[in-house]
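Hi support team,

I've been running sequence recovery on a batch of backbones for a student project. Most finish fine, but this one hangs at about 90% for roughly twenty minutes before it completes. I'm not sure whether the input is malformed or the queue is just slow. I've pasted the structure tokens below so you can try to reproduce it. Let me know if you need the job ID as well.

Thanks,
M.K.
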């Protein structure tokens, strides 16, 4: 009840605070301040609730259990299952290497492993719930379908290319281990505590990125003219999708940090396909993750991974700019 009361009070409170400041609400600065004061607590409240709920769900999907569910399955159906598990499994760039090694040791095919590694950061519960809260179920469902399609097709394509020889030698030579999906024996109270622990760990880590993303979104909302944004990221600019992907790859941000920027870009006239391509490239092809994966993958495999995923993201952007 306290959470719901705070959430419902955010809009009038932000308007009241801006009205009390010595700037006109209709000015660019006033608009930017209201956006920041409203979106910051809103996103953090949503993030805390989402992470708590998914922390409980994630207590059933440990890395060991995830490996066991995927081990021994054939490609195709396994790619679909891996992408689906990526939605409910905790993942960040820093865990890319241990997850990858664990999957290889459990005998999970390389393409299936990549379907999981693409879907887990890109189509996660934080992204989907924030998209639903900010843009509605249609955009959230659209992003879910697109993200899963990119993860499944990219992983299947990498699997068909038979690139196992481009793993680092020490990874290929690791002994295989049997993964077990046995019951972890956790009680409901322990799972609730796991939810609180997820809030402390994840929200504690990502809140600076959230605030930074909202600050950037506020500046775009208040100061960037709509015709300018429409010119460089609008539907008519065919080159906007490749540019969005090129700009997005070197950036480092998680879903919670990038979505406020996406919200501001759409409000200023950017095309949905271009914005989705930008968001996907930032989350799925982040430079830090690629640097970390270099410990286990040779450059040929990393380049193939980037090329396949980027091609899928480009197709997503072009198709939805043409249809919507």
């Amino acid at each position: 009840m306290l959470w719901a009361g705070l959430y419902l009070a955010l809009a009038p409170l932000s308007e009241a605070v801006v009205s009390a400041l010595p700037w006109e609400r209709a000015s660019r600065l006033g608009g930017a301040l209201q956006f920041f004061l409203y979106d910051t607590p809103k996103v953090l409240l949503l993030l805390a609730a989402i992470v708590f709920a998914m922390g409980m769900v994630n207590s059933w999907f440990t890395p060991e259990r995830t490996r066991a569910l995927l081990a021994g399955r054939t490609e195709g159906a396994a790619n679909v299952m891996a992408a689906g598990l990526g939605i409910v499994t905790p993942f960040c760039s820093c865990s890319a290497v241990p997850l990858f090694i664990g999957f290889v040791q459990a005998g999970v095919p390389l393409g299936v492993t990549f379907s999981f590694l693409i879907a887990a950061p890109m189509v996660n519960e934080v992204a989907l719930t924030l998209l639903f809260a900010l843009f509605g179920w249609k955009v959230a469902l659209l992003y879910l379908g697109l993200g899963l399609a990119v993860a499944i097709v990219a992983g299947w394509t990498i699997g068909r290319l038979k690139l196992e020889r481009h793993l680092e030698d020490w990874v290929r030579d690791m002994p295989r281990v049997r993964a077990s999906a046995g019951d972890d024996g956790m009680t409901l109270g322990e799972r609730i505590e796991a939810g609180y622990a997820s809030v402390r760990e994840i929200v504690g880590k990502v809140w600076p990125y959230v605030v930074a993303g909202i600050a950037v979104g506020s500046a775009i909302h208040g100061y960037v003219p709509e015709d300018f944004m429409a010119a460089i990221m609008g539907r008519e600019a065919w080159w906007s999708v490749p540019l969005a992907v090129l700009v997005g790859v070197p950036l480092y941000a998680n879903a919670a940090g990038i979505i406020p920027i996406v919200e501001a870009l759409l409000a200023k006239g950017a095309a949905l396909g271009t914005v989705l391509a930008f968001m996907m490239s930032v989350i799925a092809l982040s430079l830090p993750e690629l640097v970390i994966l270099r410990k286990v993958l040779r450059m040929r495999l990393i380049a193939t991974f980037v090329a396949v995923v980027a091609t899928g993201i480009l197709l997503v952007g072009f198709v939805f700019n043409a249809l919507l």
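--
Follow-up from support: It reproduced on our side and the slowdown came from queue contention, not your input. The chain has one domain: 25-173+189-323. No action needed from you.
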